[in-house]
Amino acid sequence: MTPMDWGIAVIAALLIILINWYFLGSKRAAVAEAATPGGAVEVTVRVEGGYSPSVIEVPAGSNVRMTLDRREDNPCSDELVIPDFGIRRELPAFRKTVIEFIATPGTHEFKCGMGMLHGSIVAK
């Protein structure tokens, strides 16, 4: 192999490692600890091709005020569903929507109306 072949092989291997790390690496959860004067835990979730953060940690039993900042008009993200809390809410494009609930202990999935975008709320 020539030095050029070795260079291409090394760059290809580095790109494979980088892509695997980006898509398959562990995702850190956003921990929401700051409560407002009214006692609610504030969480902001960006909705754009998915939910960011997609995992949210809150204290169990806390009042949660989740602000969903939808920055797209993709039809999949038109609606948010949190089955464990009986929540189904329309998310207007390019607007913020506030959802409030009491976080019971456990892991609660949230998703789009089509079930393609996923996230979870972990109440400890």
Topology overview:
Layout: H1 3-24, E1 30-31, E2 40-47, E3 51-52, E4 55-58, E5 63-70, E6 79-82, E7 87-90, E8 95-102, E9 106-112, E10 118-123
Parallel strand pairs: 1-4, 2-5, 4-10
Antiparallel strand pairs: 2-3, 5-8, 6-7, 6-9, 9-10
What Rg is obtained from the alpha carbons, in whole angstroms? 19 Å
Helix content: 10-25%
Average pLDDT reading: 87
Strand content: 35-45%
Distance between the termini: 56 Å
Task: Based on the model shown, name its key terms.
124 residues; six-stranded mixed sheet; 18% helix; four-stranded mixed sheet; alpha/beta; 10 strands
Q: Could you explain the architecture of this structure?
A:
The chain is of the alpha/beta class and about 120 residues long. The protein has one helix spanning about 5-25, and strands at about 30, 40-45, 50, 55-60, 65-70, 80, 85-90, 95-100, 105-110, 120-124. The strands form two sheets. The chain has a six-stranded mixed sheet, with no helix packed on it. It has a four-stranded mixed sheet with strand order 3-2-5-8, with no helix packed on it. About 20% of the residues are buried.
